[in-house]
Each structure stands twice: as C-alpha cells, then as structure tokens.
Specification:
The protein is about 65% helix and about 5% strand. The chain is an all-alpha fold.
Length: about 140
C-alpha cells in the first residue's frame, strides 16, 4: 500500500505544480482553458486561489509531500488525518468553483479525485486488521 499512496501523492504534487504555474501565468491563454465552464486561468487567478497570502497550489504541494512522507513511513493513521483535511478543503474549493465562480479547473478536479483516492486507501489500510506473517499461520 505504501507505494500506491506515494505514487498518488506524486500525482497530487504534479497537478498542484501545474496549478501553481497557472497561478503565476501572466500572459496568454491557459493551456487548460477548454470553454466557458472549464478554465483554470479564471479559477487560479480568483481571490479563492490564495489563503493567507499563500497560493492554494503551494498548500497542495506541501500537503501531498507530507502525505507522501507519512505513507513512506507507513504512518497510515497520520496519512488518513492529513487526507481528511485535504479532502475537506478540496470539497470546499469545489463548492466555490461550482456555486461562486461557475467555472471549473481541470487540475483542481484531478486533485479532488486524487485526494479522494488517497483518503479511501488510507481509511481502508487503517481499518484493515493487521495481517499475520506466513510464519505465524498454523500449518
């Protein structure tokens, strides 16, 4: 499970980095500007793309790095706690996109799917009974 979670956090880091690049883009159309309902530029330049002066994408990168390090150490309970915070924040941002901005960012949607998978896998791993090694099994 460790490797799957680390891979998913790497996906989150890449997607957050792409959103951060979009946040700082000053000229030209966004590469993810698909139509009037899907435009990362609008989302990443909105006032909701910053929290306490820090771009939300940086928070995403830091959060995914933290979860990746915790997963690498097999601290699945801590991964779950961090993932639940990330999922709640991502759902809040999705609500902003849907009901306030009326525009979706493909990077944000991918990140929402990614953090959802991380949460589910961390939950399953945390709740699963510990497995016994084959040497401990009766013959």
């Amino acid at each position: 499970m460790k490797h799957i979670l680390v891979l998913l956090t790497a996906v989150g880091i890449v997607v957050s980095a792409l959103a951060l690049r979009e946040h700082y883009r000053t000229e030209g159309d966004a590469p993810c500007s698909i139509n009037e309902r899907w435009d990362c530029g609008i989302v990443n330049h909105s006032p909701y793309a910053v929290l306490a002066g820090i771009p939300v994408a940086i928070l995403g990168i830091v959060g995914y790095l933290l979860m990746g390090a915790l997963a690498w150490r097999r601290a699945y309970g801590a991964v779950l706690a961090a993932a639940l915070v990330g999922l709640a924040f991502s759902l809040y941002l999705a609500r902003i996109e849907a009901h306030v901005l009326g525009v979706w960012c493909i990077y944000c949607v991918i990140s929402l799917g990614d953090i959802s998978l991380i949460t589910l896998l961390a939950l399953a791993t945390t709740l699963a009974p510990p497995s016994r090694k084959s040497s401990e099994l009766p013959s």
